[in-house]
Amino acid sequence: MTRVFNSRSGRQRRRSLRKRMPEAEVILWSKLRRKQLGGHKFRRQFGVGKYSLDFYCPRLRLAVEVDGDSHFREQAKEKDSRRQSFIEGFGIEVLRFTNHEVRANLDGVLLRIEEVARKREQILGLS
């Protein structure tokens, strides 16, 4: 049986990504770690199939992606769309923010994540 979540084959890559997170991800992680956001546990660089999610809350099936400039090219948009469809196929909701949004409006980003987290609790019958 193939492991879909956090497969062993991607472990080194995920570890490497955690060690060299872009500034915007470091900023957001400082607010998501240790259950600081509504008591929800987020993991960073969580594997789903061949993809790594920037941040993921397993309980809520909620992924948070922070996109840099490379994600705005046409080819990258298509790749992101396929990736997101694959991830959503597991019942995971994906929130996307740009590096700029995280740096310029961190409070707004956190508020949006909290809103979606509350919605996910209701949808999944966790509240």
Primary descriptors:
single chain, 127 residues, alpha+beta, four-stranded mixed sheet, 5 helices, 4 strands
What does this structure look like?
The protein has 127 residues and is an alpha+beta fold. The protein has a single domain (8-123), classed as Endonuclease, Chain A. It is built from 5 helices and 4 strands, in the order H-H-E-E-E-H-E-H-H. It has helices at 11-19, 23-32, 74-88, 99-104, 106-123, and strands at residues 43-48, 51-57, 62-67, 93-98. The protein has a 4-stranded mixed beta sheet, with helices on both faces. Strand 1 and strand 2 (51-57) form a beta hairpin. The longest helix has 18 residues, at 106-123. The radius of gyration is 14 Å and the shape is globular. The termini are far apart.
